[in-house]
Amino acid sequence: MPERAAGHACGFCGKLPGPSPETRLPMLERQRLRQILVLGLPIIGGMLSQSLINLVDAAMVGHLGEIALAGVGIGSYANFMAIALVMGLGSGVQALVARRRGEGRLDQEATPLNAGLLLALLVGLPLGLLCWWAAPWIIGLLASDPEVAAVGEDYFQWRVLAVCAVGLNFSFRGFWNGSHRSGMYLRILLGMHLCNAALSYCLIHGLFGLPEMGAEGSGLGTCIALYLGSLVYLVQTWRVARQGGFLRRRPPAIEFRVLLRLALPNSLHQFLFATGITLLFWIIAQVGTAELAVAHVLINLTLLLILPAIGLGMAATTLVSHSLGEGDVDAAHRWGWEVVRIAALGLALLGVPFWLFPAEILGLFVNDPALIELGTLPLRLTGLGMVLDAGTLVLTQALLGAGASRTVMAISLGNQWLVLLPLTYLIGPVLGYGLLAIWSLYILQRGIISAIFALMWQRRGWARIEL
Predict the structure, then answer these.
(1) Rounded CA separation 392/310 (Å)
(2) CA–CA separation, 170 vs 88, rounded Å?
(3) Phi, psi torsion values for 389, nearest 5 degrees
(4) Separation CA 90–CA 75 (nearest Å)
(5) pLDDT of residue 55
(6) 41, exposed or middle or buried, with CB in 10 Å at 0-12, 13-18, 19+?
(7) What is the pTM of this model?
(8) Phi, psi of 17 (to 5 degrees)
(9) pLDDT of 138-153, one tens digit each?
């Protein structure tokens, strides 16, 4: 069916006019690039805003000292474990919304969102309360230094009270990205992060009559901002998605089953990945508190590099799922590789300042020259090596859009738990090679995962998955 292939050559933009194949191909490439950027840039903007806010928080807390920075680091990654259990709702809702649009079922476009919001409430509320109650035990397992543990516990308790809000916001994000309206998601997210920065700064330092809470104030400010973001998402989605069934159409039972089938493996993947990252920080804590403080800064700076690529990957989720909804496997396959190429170029450019000016960048977050020296080489390696991660960051999301969530989970977690963590413990606390060796191993294993996902994508086994 050559005419159908031509009609779907750009995924879902329709047939491209042109007098000949020679002139049509360059136009097609420009059109596909434009489609990726129009969908992906707002998501990238949102991801960058989130990363920048995390960096601002780290800078505000970092100047309180290495104890505060290490405590917030422990609390942050313990919180990551909690919210990971609801993060899978975002990719599940996005894949289903994009698939419904590809099938032309616009009157049912928002029913996956309804299901996602209900699941976020049912899981997020009890989970947040349970983690708040168990905070002393959880943080006590992760931090051996009593001062670090005290800071981490206070910060963690505020953050986990917003687990429900995180689940709601990820569901809303999935809807806006899956329906090709990621610009709205970006605007709301920017407002939420600006509110977060202002509230956190005022609560840390006790401005405008607010209590001076120190590092704990950063956790409370983030909690308030997340719930305010949920409220704004609710109002804006009601305005534009009522015709698609938002809060008006009850999701059928099969919608819940399919959403759970997509979300549960991804949430479990995120939880085990977050647990692995938290265990990685525990291993680094055995090396020293200074190493733990520097590692927290390095992770947040790394997110500045990888979150834009994850944003492009989310665009790939929509593009791949939409093309599969139209029955065009070739277009879905091509979208994945094109987004990988764009992400690799972006990571290379973003990494340049990290390997040219590592000491100056670290100086924005810590005052101690010894900490800056400790982080200089690992940060330089981050700038040089993160381009290897493009395949992982994009193709993970593309495979989720195709429904291959269980396979993604098995490969990512197998590499993390069977390779990275045992080797990290061996070369760190056991052999005493320190932070540089640990960080080098972390970058190397991410490059290995990229190669595995690239092979999976090329073989197209994901094209046979039914949603």
Answers:
(1) 9
(2) 8
(3) -90, 0
(4) 23
(5) 66
(6) middle
(7) 0.69
(8) -75, 155
(9) 998 888 788 888 988 9
Instruction: Give the integer Cα–Cα distance in Å for 220 and 203.
Output: 8
Distance CA 296, CA 68 (A): 11
Query: How does pLDDT run across 275-334, given as a tens digit for each residue?
Result: 887 888 788 888 887 888 888 788 878 877 777 777 788 778 778 877 877 778 888 888
For the chain, the three-class secondary structure string (H helix, E strand, C coil) is CHHHHHHCCCCCCCCCCCCCHHHHHHHHHHHHHHHHHHHHHHHHHHHHHHHHHHHHHHHHHHCCCHHHHHHHHHHHHHHHHHHHHHHHHHHHHHHHHHHHHHCCCHHHCCHHHHHHHHHHHHHHHHHHHHHHHCHHHHHHHHCCCHHHHHHHHHHHHHHHCCHHHHHHHHHHHHHHHHCCCHHHHHHHHHHHHHHHHHHHHHHHHCCCCCCCCCHHHHHHHHHHHHHHHHHHHHHHHHHHHHHHCCCCCCCCHHHHHHHHHHHHHHHHHHHHHHHHHHHHHHHHHHHCHHHHHHHHHHHHHHHHHHHHHHHHHHHHHHHHHHHHHCCCHHHHHHHHHHHHHHHHHHHHHHHHHHHHCHHHHHCCCCCCHHHHHHHHHHHHHHHHHHHHHHHHHHHHHHHHHCCCHHHHHHHHHHHHHHHHHHHHHHHHHHCCCHHHHHHHHHHHHHHHHHHHHHHHHHHCHHHHCCC
CA distances to 79, 347, 366, 368 from 201, rounded to whole Å, are 20, 30, 17, 22
Amino acid sitting at position 457: W
**How big is the CA angle at 53 (ends 48 and 58), to the nearest 5 degrees?**
125
The mean pLDDT of the chain is 80
Domain chopping of the chain, boundaries: 37-251, 261-466
| C-alpha torsion sign, points 104, 107, 108, 109 | positive
Question: What are the Cα distances from residue 339, in Å, to 19, 55, 160, 322?
Answer: 27, 26, 34, 15
Residues belonging to the chain: 467
CA-based nearest residue to 180, from 319, 80, 66: 319
Distance from C-alpha of 199 to C-alpha of 193, rounded to nearest angstrom = 10
Report the distance separating Cα 441 and Cα 436, nearest Å.
9
